[in-house]
Amino acid sequence: MQELLERKKGLHRKILIVDDEFIEREMLGEMLKDLYEISYAENGALALDIIKSEKQRLSLIILDLHMPELDGYGLLKYIRSDNNLRRIPVIVLTSEKDAEVKSLQLGAADFITKPYDLPDVIRARVKHSIELAENSIIIHETERDELTGLFNKEFFFEYGKLLDNQNEILMDALVLDVNRFHIVNELYGKAYGDLVLKKIGSFIHNIVNTKEGGLACRSESNCFCIYLPHSDDLKIKLQSYISQVNEVIIDHKISIRIGIYLDDGNSLNMEEKFDRAKLACQKLRSTYSTAFDFYDEKLHSKELRLERLVNDFNKAIKEKQFKVFYQPKYNILKEKAHLTSCEALVRWFHPEFGLVSPFEFISLFEENGLIQDLDRYVWAEAASKVKEWKDKYSITIPVSVNVSRIDIFNPNLENILDELLNKNSIQSKDLLLEITESAYTDNSKQIIETINALRNKGFMIEMDDFGNGYSSLNMLTTLPIDALKLDMKFIKNICIDKKSCRLVEIMIEISKMLEVPVIAEGVETKEQLELLKEMGCDIVQGYYFSKPIPDYEFEELIKKEIRG
């Protein structure tokens, strides 16, 4: 490739003239030697030796068809059958019309008739053949992924769309992805990761090179697209494909997932098919029981709904479709539980879809970054309520608000929170900040620095979802936290399962060791409450006391607390 580029920059290209007639060779050489470096051979056998030794430098072969030892036809066939030589263009010398057709069928780039045309015509034919061959090499080099030899993404889609326009056959789209490939690179090194990708690329080559045909590309670092003629038994073939990949990789720690869109003739274009196949592939991210899934209309409807939710977000914020509900937290250390704080939980009352579950839109907004705007909306509503209740009832009820990973990395986080405090004339201890345990592992150094800065301003930090398995005990001793909040799944079975009960006991013991209060959420029964109280739990929230309720209903709980 480098030699080719150098020649294109202006260095003399090399041409081999093969003819058993001395005068014919010399005449052609004289016409071309001012533009090219010329070599000569008087028969096919000698020419072949030169071609093999000079294959990297030769830009063109001019070949007479009728010669002793090895004629032009035989040499042309040999060149075209050898992968290392076939890139070299060949112009044949002939005076026979039939020979012109035959030589072109054998792979000749062009022909020059005897007796020779004007030198300018010959030079034009030579220049044209060399440039076509060089451009073809460059295109071939740039259309392929260097690591796997598959098409690159851009060429794949251009070529696929061209084939779709020329043919009316149904084509299925497959997206193949390597699970958690970044972990493979981190654990075993990039060289091992590249080897895995090469092996998968080789396997995919075998699929598309069958008699059914097809196209394939490496679309992203560890993602491949495969475009195959529609097959009714693709599901059966997939089982075989996955087995073959596993044999190729020979590593049980590495697995793949495949999303498939089956063409049903509905006139989707190629990119739309792969969008749907990719969606089916993404659906498998958290599923390890199966390695492939098919796109269906249910998935399509879900995709459209999620897209609507994203598009409607700004309008929902503006129109206050998001409502903040409050779930009370009760201190249970004394004989009688008393209201100590509450958690702000957002609900979306969509004008068309009705009540949209937070489980649906929170993760969606975390993925696309809209969660920052939603969090700021909830913080503002919560801070406003703290002030309103303080003014109304002369009592301060701190409110816990969620702080997402994205919020923590926002360099303006402190300023945003300061503005809320100043605007509502409340203190930092009135706004409790809930940060999930998993957030501490993303970039622990930066997160800890941010949280320490917030604590220095007086904010209280609650670690949410504690016990989900992200933190080591050693890590816990260095984390800046003011309360541990047990995930509700640990509370669910404490009265009926000894292991669950003991696990909660251990987590409460850890909180005591860290000298921070423990909060249990999801408390639904008196038995759970009494058991938690016996274990030394400090604060509980859950349906036993109240579900999340609107602000006006929460005010009734405040009044009840004041009355005692």
Task: Describe this structure as you would to a colleague.
There is one protein chain. The chain is of the alpha/beta class. The protein has 3 domains: 2-142, Rossmann fold, CATH 3.40.50; 151-295, 2-Layer Sandwich (Alpha-Beta Plaits), CATH 3.30.70.270; 316-563, Alpha-Beta Barrel (TIM Barrel), CATH 3.20.20.450. Helices cover 49% and strands 20% of the residues. It has an 8-stranded mixed β-barrel with strand order 12-13-15-16-17-18-19-20, surrounded by 4 helices. It is elongated and about 120 Å long. The N and C termini lie far apart (85 Å). The model is unreliable at 1-11 (pLDDT under 50).
Please give the domain count.
3
- Radius of gyration based on Cα positions: 36 Å
Average pLDDT confidence is 86
Percentage of residues in DSSP E strands: 15-25%
CATH topology of the largest domain: TIM Barrel
Pick out the low-confidence regions: 1-11
Shape: elongated
Oligomer: single chain
Determine the fraction of residues in helical runs and give it as a percent range: 40-55%
User: How many alpha or pi helices?
Assistant: 23
Main sheet attributes: strand count, strand direction, barrel closure: 8 strands, mixed, barrel
The fourth-level CATH homologous superfamily of the largest domain is EAL domain
For the record, the CATH architecture of the largest domain stands as: Alpha-Beta Barrel
Biggest sheet: strand arrangement: 12-13-15-16-17-18-19-20
User: Could you tell me how far the N terminus lies from the C terminus, measured between alpha carbons in angstroms?
Assistant: 85 Å
Annotation, overall tally of beta strands = 20
* Sheet/helix structural class: alpha/beta
The first-level CATH class name of the largest domain: Alpha Beta
